[in-house]
Structures are given as C-alpha cells and as structure tokens.
Amino acid sequence: MLNFHNVCSVPSSFWLTGIPGLESLHIWLSIPFGSMYLVAVVGNVTILAVVRVERSLHQPMYFFLCMLAAIDLVLSTSTMPKLLGIFWFGAGDIGLDACLGQMFFIHCFATVESGIFLAMAFDRYVAICNPLRHSMVLTNAAVGRLGLVSLLRGVLYIGPLPLMIRLRLPLYKAHVISHSYCEHMAVVALTCGDSRVNNIYGLSIGFLVLILDSVAIAASYVMIFRAVMGLATPEARLKTLGTCGSHICAILIFYVPIAVSSLIHRFGRCVPPPVHTLLANFYLLIPPILNPIVYAVRTKPIRERLLQILRIERKIS
Q1: pLDDT band for position 3 (50/70/90)?
Q2: Is this prediction's pTM over 0.85?
Q3: 3 state SS for 75-112
Q4: CA pair distance 268, 262, nearest whole angstrom
Q5: What are phi and psi of 58, to 5 degrees?
Q6: Measured between alpha carbons, how far is residue 168 from residues 58, 172, 188, 249 in Å?
Q7: Would you say 80 and 123 are in contact if contact means Cβ atoms under 8 Å apart?
Q8: 3-state per-residue secondary structure call for 125-153
Q9: Are 172 and 191 in contact (CB under 8 A)?
Q10: Where's the G-protein coupled receptors family 1 profile domain (predicted)?
C-alpha cells in the first residue's frame, strides 16, 4: 500500500498522476499521445532500416542520424508506455528503483542526443570547411568513437543524479509525483532532506549540456557560414547550405522545447501544472516525431530510397 500522509518515510513505490488537473481527460489524451508515439517509433525504425539497407548511405552523416534515431526511440519508450498505462488503466504505481531508472534513462539519453548533435555539427564543419580531409578525419572508427564518447558523457553526467537521491535523500514527505514520469526536480521536491546539493548539481549539468553544447554548435556554424560566403556563386552557396538545413532544423526541434520546459520548471511559478507537464512530455516526443520527417523530406538520398520502396510496394500490391 502507498502511504499518502505527509510524514517522512522510506517509500517502496511512488504514484504518478499523469497530467495533473486533467485526470478526467486522460482517456482522450491517450489518443494524440498514442498516435504521436506510434509515429515516432515507425519513423525512427524506418530511418534505421533505410540506412541499414542502402549502402550508399553508409556515410558519417547517416551513421550519426542512426544514432539519433536510436536515442529518440529510447527517450520516447522510456516514458510513453508508462504514460499510456496511466491514461488507459490508471496504472500510476512505479517502484522506487524503477522511478530512478526511468529518471536516469530520460536525462542520460537527452544528454547523449545533445552530444550527437555536437558531433554532427563537427561533421558538417569538416565536410564544408575542409572537404579534402573529411574522409580521413570522419572515418567509421572515428564516428563510432564520437558516439561512444557521447554515451559515456551522458552516463558520467547523469549517473550521480539517481545515486545522490538514493544515498543522500532516502526519506520522502509524500509519495505522489504530480507528473507523468520521474523527472529529477519533481522527485527531489518530495524529499525530506537538504536537496541543495542535488539542485546545484542538476543546474550545473543543465548548464554544461544545454549552454556549452549550444555555444559549440553555434561556433561551428559561424565558421561554416563564413566558409560558405566565400564561395564564388549564389548557387554553390545555396547547395552547400542545403546540406546543413536538416541538421539546423533538428537542432532547433531539440533545444527549443527543452529550453522552454527547463525555464518554465525553474522560473514559471505562475504556469499551471498541466501546461508544464504537457510541455515536459512534448519535449520528449516532438524530436522523435519530427527528426525522421525532417530528414526524410530534406535529405535527398533518404527521400529517394523511401519513394523507391513505396513504388515497389505499390507494384506488388
């Protein structure tokens, strides 16, 4: 049994409310959320399959895109099945260790995704500013190492968060999390002890990932634009910038929702809880939905391969 009294105790589990204030609409909310999750899964699996099958796409840019698709699948799957369970069956109960595990996967792979965007910006920088060395610098082994470094960075940055909660803050004043998943600050807010260290560490990691990665990506694109402006003709400039268009769209899709959600969580005291929780879910759903669409529409080799598959299926049917 869950203990709902306002006393400090060691919980065996928590209760996730879903979208606080909109409990009566949960069954209706499951329709758009379930549809978006399905689109995210199908889109990212399609990207992985197309790159796997089409040997001409076995290049650094598309390997990074596959990493992005895999990360998006992890991010969306870390939250959506549980959220849909809450919507459909009222299954809000989640064990303490499962809650901390969910927290780790969400924040870790969001950090990994930021690292992959940084690696993709480096790939575009080398491809445009030093094209003759691109194949030597961005080898398959180098791409794999960049992906591994991004993963290790995510684990090292985020690993201490659940451990600090587990070891430093074992007592909780409430067991009801007014959220749809185990978000770090939502869990820390329920603890009885001094959570300043956790808050400072969380803010520091947010600064390192969100601010420094954004600055590094912006710096790479400043150098790219300078190189592009030095090209002889407008057609060459547009063609070169076109290779960066999908990446820029994906960066905006990722960083804008997460920045808005973080600012609202930290400083938006007047924002209603349902709005905050919906935004927190959207920043985990929007990138997995839109990234495959952006790359399928704007990347010619992927678009052509998808159209070829659709034509073959139409002939067969």
Answers
A1: very low
A2: yes
A3: HHHHHHHHHHHHHHHCCCEEEHHHHHHHHHHHHHHHHH
A4: 9
A5: -80, 70
A6: 46, 11, 11, 40
A7: no
A8: HHHHHCHHHHHHHCCHHHHHHHHHHHHHH
A9: yes
A10: 43-295
276, 22 contact by CB (below 8 A): no
Q: Beta 13-16 vs 93-95: how paired, if at all?
A: antiparallel
Report CA 288 to chain centroid distance, whole Å. Answer: 7
Query: CA dihedral defined by 200, 201, 203, 205, rounded to 10 degrees?
Result: 160
Give yes or no for a contact between 76 and 288, defined as CB atoms under 8 angstroms apart.
yes
Domain ranges of the chain: 13-314
Q: Residue 223: which pLDDT band, with cuts at 50, 70 and 90?
A: very high
Hey, which CATH number is domain 13-314, 1.10.1060.10, 1.20.1070.10, 2.60.120.280, 3.40.50.2000?
A: 1.20.1070.10
| Top-confidence residue, 276 or 240 | 276
**pLDDT band for position 264 (cuts 50, 70, 90):** confident
What mean pLDDT comes out for the span 60-71? 95
pLDDT in the model for residue 6: 56
- The two structure tokens encoding residue 153: 């960075």
Residues 6+ apart with CB under 8 A from 159: 104, 108
Q: What is the pLDDT of residue 266?
A: 67
From CA 70, how far away is CA 73, in angstroms rounded?
5
* Residue 170 structure tokens: 């074992």
Query: How far is 233 from 74, CA to CA, in rounded Å?
Result: 43
User: Strand, coil or helix: what is 230?
Assistant: coil
Q: Calculate what percentage of the chain has a pLDDT beyond 90.
A: 61
Helix (H), strand (E) at residue 121:
helix 96-129
